[in-house]
Amino acid sequence: MSKTAVRGEPLTCSVCARTFSRHEHLQRHSRTHTKEKPYICPCGRSFSRKDLLTRHERLSHPNAKPPDSHHQRKCYFDAHRRQCESNPSVLRLLVVEGQKNTATSQDLAVNPVPPSTIADPVNSAADLLIPSDDALFSGFDDPFLDFTNFMSADELGIDWDALMKDDAPMQLPLSNDNNTDVHQSNPERSDLSSRVPDDYSGDDDFRELKPFKCPWLMPEPDRLRFIGALSPFGEVIPTFVLPTRLSLARYTEGYVDGFRNHHPFVHIPTLNVLSYTRSPELALAFLAIGAQYRYETKTATSLYQASRSIVLERLRRGDLFLPRGASDEAQNDSAIDESSTDYMHRIQALLLLSWYCSWQNTPTLTQECFEYQGLIARSMRQIGIVDVPVVDANSWTEWVRVETDRRTKFFGWCLLNIQSFAYDTPPLLLSRELSLHLPSSCKEWVARDETEWLSVRARFPSPITFKQAYSSHLTTVNSVDPPSEVSPMGNYILIHALLQRIYLTQQLAADGPSENIVQNNIYEIERALNRWRHTWRTSSESMLDLQNSYGSLSFTSTALLAAAHIRLHYNLGPWRDLQSSDPAIVATTLREAPLPQRGSHLIYALLHSVHALNIPSQLGISYLSRCTSFSWSIHHALCGLECAAFLSKWLRAVAISQQGSPLSALESRVIRWITRVVREALLSQNETLHLGQQIDRSSMVGGTQLTNQLGYAIVKIWAQMFKSCNSPWPVFGLIGQSLHRYAELIENDVSLPEEC
Predict the structure, then answer these.
(1) Is the pLDDT of residue 80 over 50?
(2) First vs last Cα of the chain: how many Å apart?
(3) CA dist 156 → 107, 144, 150, 151, 152 (Å)
(4) For residues 57, 61, 65 and 68, what is the CA-based torsion angle, rounded to 10 degrees?
(5) What 8-state DSSP symbol labels residue 296?
(6) Beta bridge partners of 19
(7) pLDDT tens, 178-212?
C-alpha cells in the first residue's frame, strides 16, 4: 500500500477541488473537465477510458484483429497533443497533476510498486506533452487492478498480477475435436471491467440486458455548470447541496408526471435545466415540486428553501422586478429581450414556490404563500398581463415563447384565485386586467417538434381573446352563442373567472345592497354557468376520465363547476378556516355553518354535488384513493370538501323541516339518487360497509332517519377517501381528517343503530 494512502493525504483536482485517494482516480476524473478521449478506435470513435474502447471493439468489431500496441500509443499521443494545442487549460491541468505526481512518486519510493505505475519524478511540460509508454498505460481504469493494489499479494500468498494478466488467452487442454481458447468458447469472460457502472464517465447503468431509460438524466458537466450558476448566491445558501444527477432526473420526472398536466405553463418538449442558469431559483422550485411528487419531502423542503433564499436575495438586491418602463420598451421592440425572459422565469419561480407552500398543511408555510401573493401581483402588473408581440408566426420556437408567456400569466392569475377560494381572501388580480388570448390546444402544446406542431396547428382554430369568451358567457343577448371550441386550459380559466365573479357578488351581498341587484347578479351568473357547460361539452378536447392525465384539466374544471354552483347559493368560504391547519378547528367551524334554505334554486348545486361523488363511486373509491389519487389536483380536495359539507347540511335541513314542509317531487328524486350513489360508494370501502347495511334498512322506512344517515354517510365517504389517498400534498390529509372530525361531531344528530 502506498505511503500516500497510509497517511491519508488526498489528491485534489485543480478545477473543482474534489479529492481522491489514488492518482489514477484523479486522472480519470480530470478527463471529465478536459473532455480528453485518448483511446481511439481505427473506425474513428474515441473514448475517455480503455475499457470503453475495448467494449466498443468487442461489440462493433468482433472479428477485427487486435490493434497493435504501437498504434495504440501513437493514437494516444496524437489525441493528447491535439487536446493540449486546442485547449490550453488541459496543459495547465496536466502540469498541476505532474507536480502532484512528483510528490506522490517520492512517497511511493518507500513501498515500491511496479515501474509502470510510477511517474517520472522530474516532470517538465514537454514530458507531460509527450509521455512515455509506461506513463501512457499506468492509469488504466480497471477496477480489478485497483483491487490488486489494495490487497497486497504478500498477505494472501496469491500472485494477483499473474491471475489478472490478459495478454494471452488461457489455454485449455486440447480435445480431439478442436483447439478453442477460453475467449472463443465463453465470451462472457471477456473484459468484465467494462460492465461495472462508472459514475466518473456518467454511465450509471448496468447494460447486461438492456439499458434503463432515464430521459431526464443530466450529464455531470451540466450539473457542475448549474452548480456554478448557484455560486453568486452562495452566501444565502451556504449549506445547500445540489442532489445527484439521478435524483435530479427523478425530480424532473416527478414534475412532468404529477404537476405539468394540471398546470401546463412550462413547455416540457423544450425543457432544459441549463436554460435557467440565469434564474436558478426557477429550476430549484420545479425540482422541489418534483421531489414532492416523489414523496422525498425533506429534499423537497431543502430545494424550496434554497429557491426561496435566492428570491429573497434578489428582492434585497432590487433585481426581482422588471425596472419601470422596461415592459413598454420590450413590447415596442420586435426583438426578444433576454432580460424580459429572465424576469418571466422569476415570475414562474414565484408561482411554483407559492403553489408549493400553499398546500403543505403548515401554518408557517401558509403564511409564506400570502407573502408571495403581493410579489406575484406586482411582478405580473409590471411585466404586463398582455400578449407579447409575435416576431414570426410560423416559427415553432417563437410560438413556444409566446404561448409560455401567455400560460404563465394565466396560471399566476388562476393561482391567486384558487388561494382566494381556499382561504376566503380577496383576489389580488381581477379578470378585467387580463388582455390575453386564450391558450392554444393541448395537442399544439405537447407537440414534440416543429413538424408535429405544424400538422396539429392546421386542425385547430386560432384561440379568441379571454374577454371575448368571457363576455359571450355573461351576455343577456340570446342571439350571441358561446364559443364552441376552447382548449381545456381555456375552459379552466373561464370557470375561474366565473368563480371570481361569484366571490365579488357574495361580498356585495354582505354589504347589504338592494336585494334586486343581488338576485339579478345571481341569475346572470347562473346563465353564464350554463353557457360555460355548453362550451365545455362542445370542445373537442374535453373529457371526463379520472385515469387519463391528458384530460386532467377538463376533469378539474368540472369540479370547479360544482363548487361554483354551490358558492352561488351557499357560501361556505368563511366556515372552513383551512389556514389553521388544524382538523379540529376546521371541523368545528364547519359545524357552526348555517343550514341552506331549501328550494328549487339549489337544484344545480345538488346535482353537481352528487355527481362529484358518483364518478369515483362507479370506479371504486378504495381503488381510486389508493392507486390513482396521486394524479388528483388540489382542486379535487377543495371541491370535495365543499360538496360533502353542502350535501350534509342540505340533508340536515330536509330532516329538520320535512314534517312541516313536505318534500317536493324534485327533492324526492334527488334524495333517491343520493341514496343509490351513497349505497354504491359505501359498498366500495371496507371501512363503510356497515353503514351501507344501515342505509338499506332506513331506505325502507324513509323520513328523517334516512336523510340524517345519508348526510352522515356522505361525510364519512369523503373523509375516508381523502384519508387513504396517496396524494403527495398534505392538504389532502388535512381535509380528510377534518371531515372525519366533522362526521364525529354530527354523529350525535343522527340516530345510528349499533354496528352489525
Answers:
(1) no
(2) 75
(3) 24, 16, 12, 8, 7
(4) -40
(5) -
(6) 12
(7) 444 444 444 444 455 555 655 544 455 555 566 66
Q: Which positions ≥6 away from 156 have C-beta within 8 Å? A: none
Rounded CA gap, 630 and 624, in Å?
9
User: 3-state secondary structure string, 54-87?
Assistant: HHHHHHHCCCCCCCCHHHHHHHHHHHHHHHHHHC
Residue pLDDT, tens place only, 153-181: 343 344 434 434 444 443 434 444 444 44
Buried b (16+ CB within 10 A) or exposed e, 493-529: bbbbbbbbbbbebbeebeeeeeeeebeebbebbbebb
C-beta separation of 610 from 625 below 8 A: no
Q: How far apart are CA 97 and CA 27, in angstroms?
A: 8
Report whether 567 contacts 577 (CB < 8 A).
Answer: no
What distance in Å separates the CA atoms of residue 616 and residue 621, rounded to the nearest whole number? 5
**Which H/E stretch holds residue 135?**
helix 133-136
CA distance 224 to 231: 11
Mind giving me the DSSP string for 494-526?
HHHHHHHHHHHHHHHHHT---HHHHHHHHHHHH
Helix axis angle, 220-230 relative to 245-254, nearest 10°?
80
Please state whether 8 falls in left (phi above 0), alpha (psi between -120 and 50) or beta: left
Q: What's the pLDDT score for residue 545? A: 73
Place of cell 425530480: 251
Neighbours of 545 (CB within 10 A): 12
Q: Output the DSSP codes for 445-503.
A: HT--SHHHHHHHHTTSPPPPBHHHHHHHHH---TTSPPPS---HHHHHHHHHHHHHHHH
Task: Give which of 616, 626, 753 is closest to 680, Cα–Cα.
Answer: 616
Q: How many CB atoms lie within 10 A of CB 669?
A: 12
Residue range(s) occupied by CATH 3.30.160.60 in the chain: 3-141
Residue 413 buriedness (CB in 10 A; 0-12 / 13-18 / 19+): buried
pTM: 0.74
CA dist 9 and 181 (Å) reads 44
SS3 call for 237: coil
669's CB contacts (< 8 A; 6+ apart) are none
Cell numbers standing for residue 554: 377538463
Question: What is the rounded average pLDDT of the residues 656-683?
Answer: 92
Residues 409 and 508 sit within 8 Å (Cβ to Cβ) = no
Return the CATH architecture of domain 3-141: 2-Layer Sandwich (3.30)
In DSSP terms, which residues pair with 198 in a beta bridge?
203
User: How confident is residue 50, by pLDDT bands cut at 50, 70 and 90?
Assistant: confident
